[in-house]
């Protein structure tokens, strides 16, 4: 798995989520499975199958968090965009060629999401095209629908 860049706040939040899932989450699921088993025939026991499905999803999330946190690089959210260049953690205002609307994107992991701002991975074609650029720069990148051009209107954190 590629290294994920996370702010300290997000890293700490994800670490707390992981610990909660490993402890309280696993205990709660074990109780739900035991309660469902007590209801009888497991082949037609909807509660049992639902609890097992929830357990599988929780264990997948635990594995995802473990891998992400193991390979995480902590970035300084306050420094993102402070020098005017697009970096991981920066919020970038873009205008697509031929469009007057300005859209905001956070460059980073989906785990960094913020209300009202779409997230773009720094490893995506758009993210790679933006990294290191500044307000006023125009960049082109290959999207699934073809080549697109954007103008960087502003860079902030």
TrEMBL record:
The keyword Transmembrane helix does not apply. The keyword Oxidoreductase does not apply. Keywords: DNA-binding, Elongation factor, Protein biosynthesis, Transcription, Transcription regulation. Residues 83-155 form the Transcription elongation factor GreA/GreB C-terminal domain. It comes from the Bacteria. Residues 5-74 form the Transcription elongation factor GreA/GreB N-terminal domain. HAMAP family: GreA_GreB. PANTHER family: TRANSCRIPTION ELONGATION FACTOR GREA. Belongs to the GreA/GreB family. Necessary for efficient RNA polymerase transcription elongation past template-encoded arresting sites. The arresting sites in DNA have the property of trapping a certain fraction of elongating RNA polymerases that pass through, resulting in locked ternary complexes. Cleavage of the nascent transcript by cleavage factors such as GreA or GreB allows the resumption of elongation from the new 3'terminus. GreA releases sequences of 2 to 3 nucleotides. This is Transcription elongation factor GreA. It comes from Acidiferrimicrobium australe.
């Amino acid at each position: 798995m590629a290294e994920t860049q996370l702010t300290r706040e997000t890293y700490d939040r994800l670490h707390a989520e992981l610990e909660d899932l490993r402890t309280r989450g696993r205990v709660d699921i074990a109780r739900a499975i035991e309660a469902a088993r007590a209801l009888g025939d497991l082949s037609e026991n909807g509660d049992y199958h639902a609890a097992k499905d929830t357990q599988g999803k929780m264990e997948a999330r635990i594995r995802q968090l473990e891998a992400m946190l193991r390979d995480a690089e902590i970035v300084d959210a306050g420094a993102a965009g402070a020098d005017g260049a697009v970096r991981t953690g920066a919020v970038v205002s873009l205008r697509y060629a031929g469009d007057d609307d300005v859209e905001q994107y956070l460059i980073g992991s989906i785990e960094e999401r913020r209300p009202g701002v779409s997230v773009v991975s720094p490893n995506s074609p758009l993210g790679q095209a933006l990294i290191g650029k500044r307000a006023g720069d125009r960049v082109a990148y290959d999207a699934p629908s073809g080549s697109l051009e954007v103008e960087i209107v502003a860079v902030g954190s």
